[in-house]
Amino acid sequence: MSESAAVRGPVIILVEPQMGENIGMAARAMANFGLAEMRLVNPRDGWPNEKAEAASAGALHVLAGVRVFGSVEEAVADLNFVFATTARERGQQKRVLGADAAMAETVAQAAGGAGVGVLFGRERTGLDNGAVALADAIITFPVNPAHASLNLAQAVLLVGYEWFKASGGTLPFAENERSVPATREAVLSFFNYLEGELDAAGFFTPPEKRSIMVRNLRNIFHRLRMTDQDVRTLRGAVVALVQGRRGGRNPPRKARAPEAGETGA
Question: Region annotation Disordered: residue ranges (predicted)?
Fold first, then answer.
């Protein structure tokens, strides 16, 4: 589901981003999940940025709509609700949510007409406490505590992914439709044929274990939930093996002895 087909997605606000490449990759992550509104607060290398365009992988529509602000206060002034992303506790007595819960809330808020923004901090140091203080709640991610810092674009991607799911996004394709399930008659016919050939090959030994071995073998195939096509393919494969062993159609060729001058390799 694209943003235009649903409620307005959260505004992605990058506070003092240091590298154009990260801005571009964040724009790419936004485009992946139907987000289109990016704001920048004092980007270190100015704006526009050629490196951002090169790293955006075609998400130029996101970059074309970027708005630049001189402060976080200005960037969030028209929004009704703001999240701040951070990897560490700030002691500010704010609600702390995972991205999934935060984006579920965002869908509900945006459906009511509220503008929602998500703040992301500098690549090296994240958001300062002043920026976090402007937020209504905190988003953090379940990560390895020994390596908790996320790349800026990765953090944007996680939020975008949860937004897309919460707003009704679906997988781009589904499992190919399988052929109809095999009838019990076809399955039993295959079992009888297979077990008869295994008997002829001396597979079921010792004889007193035959019933258990047959049951185990059948259960293997039952777990496959075989379709009609599966049964026909498996039966054809066994037929080919049996006929080949007996010198029937298309028997395997005998290896030709190397002629003079050949290595045989």
Answer: 243-265
**Closest listed residue to residue 12, CA positions, set 153, 195, 181:** 153
12 pairs with which residues across the strands?
38, 118
Number of other residues whose CB lies within 10 A of the CB of residue 137: 15
Contacts for 163-166 with beta carbons within 8 Å, 24 or more apart? 163/9, 163/10, 163/33, 163/34, 163/35, 163/103, 163/106, 163/107, 164/1, 164/33, 164/34, 165/100, 165/103, 166/100, 166/103, 166/104, 166/106, 166/107
- pLDDT tens column, 169-210: 888 887 776 789 999 999 999 999 999 999 999 999 999 999
pLDDT digits (tens, 9 = 90+) for 4-37: 445 789 999 999 999 999 999 999 999 999 999 9
Q: Rounded CA gap, 245 and 172, in Å?
A: 46
* Rounded-to-integer distance, Cα 168 and Cα 67, Å: 27
Pairing label, strands 38-41, 95-97: unpaired
With contact defined as beta carbons under 8 Å apart, do 134 and 84 qualify?
A: yes
50 token code pair? 């050629």
Residue ranges of domains in the chain, CATH in brackets: 3-166 (3.40.1280.10), 184-245 (1.10.8)
Tell me the whole-structure pTM to 2 decimals.
0.72
Exposure of 59 by Cβ count < 10 A (0-12 exposed, 13-18 middle, 19+ buried)? buried
Report the 10 Å Cβ neighbour count for 14: 27
Q: Round to whole Å and give the CA distance between 121 and 50.
A: 21
Strand order in the sheet with 116-120: 67-69, 38-41, 11-15, 116-120, 81-85, 137-139, 95-97
